[in-house]
Design brief:
Blueprint lengths: L2 H13 L2 H7 L4 H15 L4 E4 L2 E4 L1 H28 L5 E6 L1 H4 L2 H12 L4 E6 L2 H9 L5 E10 L4 E16 L10 E3 H4 L3 E5 L4 H12 L5 E7 L1 H9 L5 E4 L9 E7 L4 E9 L6 H21 L3 E3 L5 E2 L1 E5 L2
Parallel strand pairs: 3-4, 3-5, 7-11, 8-9
Antiparallel strand pairs: 1-2, 5-12, 5-15, 6-10, 6-11, 6-12, 6-13, 6-14
């Protein structure tokens, strides 16, 4: 039994005539007759009483007719839903991102995507990169915005690099600048009061490692804060902090200066599972992410640049900031 046979059966039942039904379906009359005969053979029952004046349903045909109509209606409904999804009239995107990306890149991405496709459901998971990859592998996410370093090959995820971003030193815009130069040395930062992140942030691990490698001990005034709290504490003039340049977007209460000797960077990528083809809504979301990242890079000046444009597959040691 197939949909073509059922459609032919329903039209013959409606019109009571094989020739008229065949014309309506753009079939030769013998082809339609063969379809119905095959259907009757598969079901083991005659569906029509054939006569010169027309064809009428048998008891078996009358039983099949409402079922056939419902099956055809269900098939049409499936086609409409798939067409709507392909046209981004319906669907869902589950996006994961690290905390620093949620308050910067993701906010702009979701704003642009929702404005263009308001009917698509959006779900966001804010986690560290390792946890996001676990969710991706478990089918809980469609895409994950992660921070990556020291890549090694794997077939589990397709990872497309987006941006290489500098870490900068921020201070309150209402306080005097921490330096009158274009960049500040790490040794000079160590002498300033600092607000530092929770130990769960790899940003904290990165900065601690940089100070240790330089033989420096930073002056910490607040320790263990999350990103939002760090930014607010710095805005209030409690201390300075080392953060990704991206979080300064639309933050007039903060000023930033580049870090030198050494310069610290992180790479931002978008990941998805390698063995699943993304549905249309997810593909458009990934394109929106790439366009937004490009726009951010253009607006940021020297502190951010686009990474390699080509996608590649890899497994990385992942930052959780």
């Amino acid at each position: 039994m197939n949909l073509e046979q059922l459609r032919g059966f329903v039209e013959v039942a409606r019109l009571g005539n094989f020739t008229q039904a065949a014309d309506l379906l753009h079939l030769a009359q013998p082809s339609l007759s063969r379809q119905i005969a095959t259907l009757e053979r598969d079901l083991g029952a005659e569906l029509f009483q054939r006569a010169r004046g027309g064809s009428t349903l048998t008891t078996a045909g009358e039983s099949l007719l409402p079922l056939a109509r419902r099956m055809l209606a269900d098939a049409d409904s499936v086609r409409r839903e798939l067409a709507e999804l392909a046209g981004l009239e319906r669907g869902r995107v589950r996006l994961g991102a690290t905390p620093t990306l949620c308050i910067s890149l993701v906010a702009e991405v979701l704003s642009a995507f929702h404005a263009a496709h308001p009917a698509i459901e959006l779900h966001v998971s804010e986690q560290g990169s390792r946890r996001l990859l676990d969710q991706l592998a478990g089918g809980e996410l469609d895409l994950a915005l992660i921070t990556t370093s020291n890549a090694a090959s794997t077939a589990r995820f397709t990872v497309a690099p987006l941006l290489v971003e500098e870490l900068v030193v921020i201070s309150s815009s209402s306080a005097p600048p921490v330096t009158d130069r274009e960049a500040i040395r790490l040794a000079d930062v160590a002498q300033l009061p600092q607000v530092v992140f929770s130990s769960t942030y790899d940003l904290r691990t990165t900065t601690d490692a940089a100070f240790e490698a330089a033989g420096l001990t930073p002056e910490v005034v607040v320790e263990g804060a999350e990103m939002d709290a760090v930014l607010r504490f710095v805005e209030r003039g409690i201390g300075v902090a080392i953060v990704p340049a991206m979080v300064l977007v639309e933050r007039p209460g903060l000023r930033a200066v580049r870090l030198a000797e050494p310069t610290l960077t992180r790479e931002i990528s978008v990941a998805r599972t390698a063995d699943l083809a993304p549905p249309p809504a997810v593909q458009v979301m990934q394109q929106t992410i790439a366009r937004t990242a490009s726009s951010l890079a253009e607006r940021s000046g020297a502190t951010m640049r686009l990474a390699e444009a080509a996608s590649y597959t890899r497994e990385s040691r992942l930052a959780t900031g």
